[in-house]
Amino acid sequence: MGKKKENLENIAQNLTLVNCSAFEQKTKVFLLTLSILLFSACVQEPKEAKLEKITIAFQEWVGYGLFYLGQERGFFKEEGIELIFVDEKLDSARRDAFKSGILDCEGGTIDLLIAKRAQSTPIVSVLELDHSAGSDAIVATKDIQKLEDLIGKRVALARDDVGETFISYLFYKKKLLLDDVIIIPARPE
Q1: φ/ψ (deg, to 5) at 27
Q2: How many C-beta atoms lie closer than 10 Å to residue 137's C-beta?
Q3: CA dihedral over 100, 101, 107, 109, signed as positive or negative
Q4: How far is CA 61 from the centre of its chain?
Q5: 3-state DSSP call for residue 167?
Q6: pTM exceeds 0.85 for this model
Q7: Low pLDDT (below 50) residues in the chain
Q8: Alpha carbon distances (Å) from 125 to 22, 85, 91, 108
Q9: Fewer Cβ atoms within 10 A, N terminus or C terminus of the chain?
Q10: What is the pLDDT of residue 8?
Q11: Residue 57 in contact with residue 107, Cβ under 8 Å?
């Protein structure tokens, strides 16, 4: 403790202006003022960072709820991002918005990604949110017992959507033509 006190007294004595010549006093005041000015110029009030705006679109699905939760909790803001949600159910409209630069990213299924790439949409997959076998099904009246019973019948489905991909795949596996059913376009639900 005695050594620290002695060091402090030495520093104080060196800074004191009383035992200095007029030139030394002016020099010390000048250097002290200059140091304060330089230090205060370096210390600035933190400016609020400008957030990078990123637009994202997807259909309603519980798995995308994490985006809303992350925004509500301020996680995106902490990372310097202002996430803007674009509510568009039609995949074709999301594709067109992406192509025209309105969208920065999109949540969607792999089949829709492949369809967009086939239509020259500049899109790539960067994150897998879910890996499942899906839960798609065909809902029909009692007289429809097998896929072949749909031939010549009216089938409502969302065009350019997972439902169309699903039924197209089933028809393909059974060597049936999707042209043999009457497709009634419907909005995705």
Answers
A1: -65, -45
A2: 8
A3: positive
A4: 16
A5: helix
A6: no
A7: 8, 12
A8: 73, 18, 16, 9
A9: N
A10: 47
A11: yes
Alpha carbon 156 to chain centroid distance? Answer: 33
Q: Are strands 52-58 and 81-87 parallel, antiparallel or unpaired?
A: parallel
Q: Can you give the pLDDT at residue 108?
A: 84
pLDDT tens-digit series, residues 101-120:
999 998 888 888 888 888 88
Q: Which residues contact 117 (CB under 8 A, 6 or more apart)?
A: 123
**Which residue is it, tokens 């969607």?**
108
N-to-C CA span, the chain: 77
> What's residue 77's pLDDT?
93
For 121, residues 6+ apart whose C-beta sits below 8 A from its C-beta are 95, 98, 99
CB 53 within 8 Å of CB 76: no
The two tokens of residue 172 are 């393909």
Pick from 87, 134, 86: which is nearest to 109 by CA?
134
Between helices 110-118 and 91-99, what is the axis angle to 10°? 50
Residue type, 5: K
CA distance 123 to 141: 39
Query: What angle, rounded to 10 degrees, do the helices at 162-173 and 110-118 form?
Result: 90
Q: Give the helix/strand (H/E) hosting 100.
A: none
